Amino acid sequence: YRMPDAYDIEGGVNQEKRFSVAMERYRDSKDGDKMNPFAEQEAWEDHQIGKATLKFGSKNKKQSEDYNFVFEDQIEFIKGQVMGGENADRKTLPVYPYRESLLQAIEDHQVLVIVGETGSGKTTQIPQYLHEAGYTKRGMIGCTQPRRVAAMSVAARVSQEMGIKLGHEVGYSIRFEDCTSDKTVLKYMTDGMLLREFLGEPDLASYSVVMVDEAHERTLSTDILFGLVKGTVSIHWFDPFILLFFQDIARFRPDLKLLISSATLDAEKFSDYFDSAPIFKIPGRRFPVEINYTKAPEADYLDAAIVTALQIHVTQPPGDGDILVFLTGQEEIETAEEILKHRTRGLGSKIAELIICPIYANLPTELQAKIFEPTPEGARKVVLATNIAETSLTIDGIKYVIDPGFVKMKSYNPRTGMESLLITPISKASANQRAGRSGRTGPGKCFRLYTAYNYFNDLDDNTVPEIQRTNLANVVLSLKSLGIHDLLNFDFMDPPPAEALLKALELLFALSALNKHGELTKVGRKMAEFPLDPMLSKMIVASDKYKCSDEIISIAAMLSIGSSIFYRPKDKQVHADNARLNFHMGNVGDHIALLKVYSSWKETNFSTQWCYENYIQVRSMKRARDIRDQLEGLLERVEIELVSNPGDLEAIKKSITSGYFPHSARMQKNGSYRTVKHPQTVYIHPSSGLAQVLPRWVVYHELVLTTKEYMRQVSELKPEWLVEIAPHYYQLKDVEDLASKKMPRGEGRASKD
Ligand code: CDP
Ligand code: MG
Question: Can you give the residue ranges of the Helicase ATP-binding domain (predicted)?
């Protein structure tokens, strides 16, 4: 293994020294039997105990108030620290000393921005404080999370702390999964779910407090929620749009409390946006972190990450702390897990046990708990995580962070309307958050698998908010169904590019969700009922016409699972591949194959054994069944009859095409494809049943960019369908095969931008 001196150390020595000096002072003060909270202030970087400051936004700098905490609480807090009772109980969390002052600040102000280091207890504690203070008598406390896993795991944690069953007083709600009941008063939910609730209840009448958590993540839904709740908590007298004005009055809720919480310091921006709302800062508790860079860029960051993890494990005593590795996605995490298992097996009993804990968005619930279990003595935990561990989840006991410097991020080209997931370098802000994860329980170390030069010169300061790099069709449809028409003047915190808005309007028009005046049509109103991408909801709405809604919702459910359906164990690859091919018999295309998987499973009465025999993930299938049940319920709501027509594959494929006609592609000579509307060279993903078949015309579900731009979930289509189904979008000349011969040279490159 590479030796540790392969890393440059930046600032480590100074911080270490500063810390030890401060720690000494702290110990002195303790020995003197007189607790001096100010000694501790210096013991932690950026630490300021004794006073929680309530600062007003930059527009209103002059006003400022200090909220003093209760001193007894403070002492207890420090005691908790000294006893090392990090996990001992709620009172040891950094937010605890500020309980009273925080509640006072919430009482005094309708909108409050709360800032505190990750792990300080914002998400798990603040809703409980509000509950204890009686807020839940007036309505629920809703706390939004950008990620499903975070919503579930935090709800589980809080119900455990309160000693009640998850789903009773404390519950969570994520897309396709509602774990709440009549009793629920603390509701953790994805920001997307609150957005959907907003559609049905624009004054948020069931809530007394809404906490938009992890606001710094600036997800699309969070940003849209901001714009919407702003209208709920304040009346904008100067709003030039009289319509919006009247709506705001109807929605106005002077009694609703709005909390915006964030782990990073750019809180002034939130404050400014919410008319100079005060900022409540929870003093952090962070130990120094030694930052190490590689001397030269890494060619293979995954390998470098694995080597670094093993090296730490082998050279450092096991009781000394766990390792957190940031990777970009499920596949990468699974690869890393396999390699790590293989290599540690190679080392046998010569090394301490290494417990590998993966965590990513689609990790099954029952496996999520594993990462929070304390590491047994003599062993070490290595957590392989996506960005979810950057701020949404806090895992105790991490001492080493390995940061390859990449994240999988959505990117969108408004010109072509194409969206893909790209592995992109992180921002400096992200890099610092990641590093900070190692300094929670003691001094930590962060290994950045990139050079100091890269960090200072190549990384952006902040991540671009999602709203500026995504397809907005879904959002535009939601806003339209809320009656918000003037999107260009919607109060966005950071407006999306006008081009992206226009593109979204264009797509919704093409899907017949909007008429030419930009108003919601009957079709659009139905589509808005489905918590799905507009193309997927259009496919469902169209199935009414083709009399195959039963089959289409199964396909839609299978497409919405988000994780893989087939698995392929290393030692049984041939069997697994054969089982998979069975469903593709007759080259029916991937959509029909998904339908066959679902129907066959249903025929066996949802048998688990059948899944094993066919190398299919039971969990994914169960999820598909849940999603399908909900879609069936929604069909009823939009008055689409459930009709089955399994024999008519053409009808099924026409329904698919009705939603996905903008995703059509024609084969070129060399097995590559060219998208019809905005010419770009793409390929059929090797996992597709049609990868060897190469039909002349295809419709695809999505594009993914790995080594090439791949189409995933592909079906064959007849070009005349395009003109039949979307005459306003395709003309005959678009689908004439002749056109391909006159293709200009070098178009592949030209379409790259
Ligand atoms: O929201 P914030 O980052 O400020 O902190 P939090 O999520 O409320 O976490 C507070 C504490 O609860 C941390 O020490 C976490 O390790 C712990 N926690 C946990 O053990 N299990 C969870 N599922 C969530 C939090
Ligand atoms: Mg949190």
Answer: 103-283
